[in-house]
Amino acid sequence: MNRTSLVVTLCAILGLLGSLTLSTMKPLTVPQSNESTIPMEATGLATSPFVTPTNRLTPAMPESSPNNMQSPIQPFPTLMWQQIAALQSQNRFLYTGNRYLPEVALTFDDGPNPYYTPQILAILQHYRVKATFFCIGQQVARYPNLVRQEYSDGNLVGNHSWSHPNLALLSDNEIETQINLTSNAIQQATGVRPTFFRPPYGVVNTKVLAQANLLGLTTIIWSDEARDWATPGTSVIVSRILRLAGDGAIILMHDGGGDRTQTVAALPSIITALRASGFQLVTLRQMLNDVPERPASTQAPISASTPTPPPVPSPDSSSGLSPVVSSTP
What we know:
The protein is an alpha/beta fold and 329 residues long. It has a domain at 80-308: TIM Barrel (Alpha-Beta Barrel). 39% of the residues lie in helices and 12% in strands. The radius of gyration is 32 Å and the shape is globular. The chain starts with a helix and ends in a 6-residue tail after the last strand.
């Protein structure tokens, strides 16, 4: 009986304490609209049950964009050989495509030209071939309809600088301007910003590579060319190109910058002979798609002559200028 009385007494005391606590608590109130509150947007919380906090904080990306630049490699090395290695590790600096696939890319520099470019486009259409055109920005601004036709025919349009200078002799800002002005002109003509870049004369240095990286461009050199800029004769152009052609070859020709009559005359024979040898003619976009992951890091520079001699004597290591391809007579 004593235990029972003790339990009853304790329960009564606990109940009394609970009642006193409840009576002294401030009632929970909902803030009115005129009270100072933190907006839901400021907290990162969704104002709709269909929008999650993640969606509120992450900007929506467009489904399609004309500017498909790759992100810059960060940090980017300062020594040239390290820069090339870094770019090659992501297939953003190429001399050739896949050396184990019978693919060849025809590329044309220095256009568009109102006389020669339409002839080359007609030949490509006749043979149902897609090629790549590295255009000079000044020419794009003069003949945007030709660039638009290149693109509408299914060819790839790349950046070849604004006025074809030796970019390695320019400042960082001048290099950026040369590239951006050209990309702007191509995008205005085609609606698509170019992602492929070929430096004039095939010459680069640390500044050129750094700007190409910052702008998200893939730098393309070449492995096969006939020096058609020297007008050596139609048969010579054909034989030189076929002699150097191989799996993954990137062939350099020109549709502007001078008399390209021999190039136009040689093109049908080049196309038919390459096909007869079992090669598929592709754009650089297709060639890059068919390159295995990180194969370019094993590529050694390929010696080929530049389209025209650089406007300065052959550089040395102290000048900071380093041509990717050798300048041969």
